[in-house]
Specification:
about 325 residues, four-stranded antiparallel beta sheet, single chain, 1 helix, globular, mainly beta
Length: about 325
């Protein structure tokens, strides 16, 4: 629910909270000499009111909140946060110190584990995934840790929390896994990686693509509730999804496909998709040098709506 607009030098960003229209400019709200904000890996609360971001220029994390008059600063890399707590990691060699703070920056507890790449805060505690793929649960009050199952997806590279805050999508060198709120492994997907530079995660689903560039590209849409694959087909990036993440548009050699729980709808056309409506009912395409709005049912015969010449940017918003 929050728009992040970082500067090209990563030293500044403007944040806009969609539902309220509140705006924060880090140059005035969180001016830090030598800041280099890693907004590609920023962590947001489900409400979008709090954003935790690593400032790699100063080896710290910064909590930027629309509900606080000033930022809070924490040692270590941004790992996870919720409405009350912030978790950061300090990786040294193969070990990590996991620090838990309140939003004001006061320490709550500290734990030790192997180097970590992903984490989320749940009722079970702080759920962590180490570089080796071990799922660790740490008490948010005492710092005690317990090892759980091990992911079989190669060296762990990154992890992203779903908008609901109760699932962790973990990307490894050889696959992708879905981890639940209590640290259980819900599902694993061999040779698949999260779509896009950042995972294409909606409110209920996320998309994966073939991890091996030499293999036939495959697109899959995964339900975050139980890890089931709702639909899959051949296709390539970029992908576009509705707000739920359960309807995805993928480019194919003969046009584009729409994947959803109902199956795969194939559009054999020269059109190229550019955006998908939040409800999945329409798709913006490039057609004969112009942009047009078309329906998402391949059997519909309604004429597309002209949106203007090619080169414009098309986005859908909630009315």
């Amino acid at each position: 629910l929050t728009l992040l607009a970082p500067a090209s030098n990563s030293g500044r960003a403007v944040l806009a909270h969609g539902p309220s229209g509140d705006v924060i400019d880090t140059d005035t709200f969180a001016p830090v000499v030598g800041a280099r904000y890693e907004f590609d890996d920023a962590r947001s609360s489900p409400s979008g009111r709090d954003v935790l971001v690593t400032d790699s220029g100063n080896f710290q994390s910064v909590l930027i909140s629309f509900d606080r008059d000033e930022p809070s600063f924490f040692p270590g890399l941004a790992l996870a946060h919720d409405a009350d707590l912030v978790v950061t990691a300090q990786n040294v060699g193969s070990d990590a110190t996991i620090n838990v703070f309140d939003h004001a920056g006061d320490p709550v507890t500290t734990g030790r584990t192997s180097s970590v790449r992903a984490g989320m805060i749940t009722d079970a505690g702080v759920v962590l995934v180490t570089v080796e793929g071990v799922v660790v649960t740490m008490s948010a009050s005492s710092g005690d840790t317990s090892d759980g199952a091990r992911l079989d997806i190669g060296t762990i590279e990154s992890g992203s929390v779903t908008p609901a805050g109760d699932r962790l999508v973990v990307a490894g060198a050889t696959g992708t896994a879905l981890v639940g709120a209590d640290g259980e492994i819900i599902a694993s997907y061999d040779a698949q990686r999260p779509a896009g530079g950042l995972p294409l995660i909606g409110s209920m689903c996320f998309a994966t693509v073939t991890a091996d560039d030499s293999a036939e590209p495959r697109i899959a849409v995964v339900d975050t509730t139980d890890g089931s694959v709702l639909a899959e087909t051949s296709g390539s990036e970029p992908l576009f999804s509705d707000a739920s993440g359960c309807t995805v548009a993928a480019t194919t050699p003969s046009g584009y496909d729409l994947l959803s729980a109902e199956g795969v709808s194939q559009f054999e056309t020269d059109d190229t998709p550019h955006a998908l409506a939040l409800d999945g009912a329409a798709v913006a395409v490039e057609r004969d040098g112009r942009l047009a709005l078309a329906g998402s049912d391949p059997d519909e015969s309604a004429d597309p709506i002209d949106l203007g010449p090619r080169g414009r940017t098309v986005h859908f918003t909630q009315a």
